[in-house]
């Protein structure tokens, strides 16, 4: 059984760190008032945190009668976390400090060899980013990796990720832990995008949120009551396999999903080629639509209709505050307007639909939120059952600038 005195100490430390993290710069008296602990207890713990380099003084209170109090905040650069967005075509790595600000960012085309070569690539990029900053890799304490598939917690395989070969046959997370020498958390990239949108824009406001990503594939991240929903096997949100659109019994549908076959990049490109005999990229098809081309309008309208039905199906089961749409295709305003019109046609009530405000930074933001929370818990609440330390998000513009 855990030492109750130790648990009590951890709880006290955790609550005080949460107060400083959320409201800093803050005085010890304000922390005591906020947490209910005595000023002596707060002073002892804050002094210990300061001595260990986790907390620093940043001035004194202003405008008070009498003696001004010293105020404290978490030392932003006391440690770093790594947030990685692994895609089929590109790998992005962002190093963030304890305030959530991006201090370094690198991106490369995803290694086409797949498998362990991708693991090596991520480790090299993370360590290389620290070298560019002139700091030791040991400064990084936690890494969160967003992957385009479903992590299997038992085997470490990343399933349903056909764009990265061999990643479904290796213990991806364990190999990365060995390469980096730190705690590694692997999560579906759309799940991280949902967490990123919630953390940065809707925390406490819209705690029942669905992030729908439409691009090379289609997938959803589901946040209920402010918590990510993964499901029994981690496959919650794999809406590409909803059995409508294409024939769900066909082999291709069992591989990539019946819905994905009629909504994602290949469906739009293929549909346009079938209509016109010409091959264009998705951006070119949108340009043709804006120019008034009927064939482009027909193809995009078909995709929008299926996406709207998908949102209706999700809303019928979950009833979210809003559905945030992102991804290289989903972010297009033209498509979102079509989707809203289709929802009004085939669903009996309004479903709030919003464009992602984070764009291609959403998964990086979600990875940062997860990594910072995990690091704070590991540092300040170890062995404390149910511990949770929420780190306030940085300004969206600041995050996007740093991870551009």
Automatic annotation (TrEMBL):
SUPFAM superfamilies: Actin-like ATPase domain, Winged helix' DNA-binding domain. It comes from the Bacteria. InterPro entries: ATPase_NBD, ROK, WH-like_DNA-bd_sf, WH_DNA-bd_sf. It holds the Pfam family ROK. PANTHER family: BIFUNCTIONAL UDP-N-ACETYLGLUCOSAMINE 2-EPIMERASE_N-ACETYLMANNOSAMINE KINASE, ROK (REPRESSOR, ORF, KINASE) FAMILY. Belongs to the ROK (NagC/XylR) family. This is ROK family transcriptional regulator. It comes from Ruegeria haliotis. The lineage of its organism: Bacteria, Pseudomonadati, Pseudomonadota, Alphaproteobacteria, Rhodobacterales.
């Amino acid at each position: 059984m855990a030492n109750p005195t130790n648990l009590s100490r951890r709880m006290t430390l955790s609550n005080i760190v949460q107060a400083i993290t959320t409201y800093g710069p803050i005085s010890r008296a304000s922390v005591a008032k906020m947490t209910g602990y005595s000023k002596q207890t707060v002073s002892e713990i804050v002094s210990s945190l300061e001595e260990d380099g986790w907390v620093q003084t940043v001035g004194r209170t202003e405008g008070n009668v009498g003696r001004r109090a010293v105020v404290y905040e978490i030392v932003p650069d006391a440690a770093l976390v790594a947030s990685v967005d692994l895609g089929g075509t590109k790998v992005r790595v962002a190093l963030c400090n304890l305030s959530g600000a991006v201090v370094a960012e690198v991106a490369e085309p995803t290694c086409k060899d797949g498998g362990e070569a991708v693991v090596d690539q991520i480790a090299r990029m993370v360590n290389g980013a620290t070298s560019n900053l002139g700091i030791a890799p040991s400064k990084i304490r936690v890494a969160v990796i967003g992957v385009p598939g479903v992590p299997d917690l038992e085997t470490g395989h990343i399933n349903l990720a056909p764009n990265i070969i061999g990643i479904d046959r290796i213990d991806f997370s364990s190999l990365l832990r060995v390469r980096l020498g730190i705690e590694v958390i692997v999560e579906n990239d759309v799940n991280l995008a949902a967490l990123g949108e919630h953390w940065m824009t809707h925390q406490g406001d819209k705690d029942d949120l669905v992030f729908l990503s439409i691009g090379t594939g289609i997938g959803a991240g589901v946040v209920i009551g402010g918590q990510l929903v993964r499901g029994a096997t981690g496959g919650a949100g794999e809406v590409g396999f909803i059995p409508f659109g294409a024939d769900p019994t066909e082999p291709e549908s069992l591989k990539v999903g019946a819905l994905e076959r009629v909504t994602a990049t290949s469906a739009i490109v293929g549909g346009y080629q079938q209509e016109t005999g010409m091959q264009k990229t998705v951006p070119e098809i949108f340009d043709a639509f804006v120019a008034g081309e009927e064939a482009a309008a027909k193809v995009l309208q078909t995709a929008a209709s299926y996406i709207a039905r998908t949102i209706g199906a999700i809303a019928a089961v979950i009833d979210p505050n809003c559905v945030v749409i992102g991804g290289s295709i989903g972010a297009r305003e033209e498509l979102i307007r079509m989707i809203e019109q289709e929802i009004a046609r085939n669903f009996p009530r309004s479903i709030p639909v919003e464009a992602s405000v984070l764009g291609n930074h959403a998964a990086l933001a979600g990875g940062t939120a997860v990594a910072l929370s995990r690091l704070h818990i590991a540092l300040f609440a170890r062995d404390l059952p149910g511990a949770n330390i929420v780190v306030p998000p940085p300004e969206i513009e600041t995050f996007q600038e740093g991870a551009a």
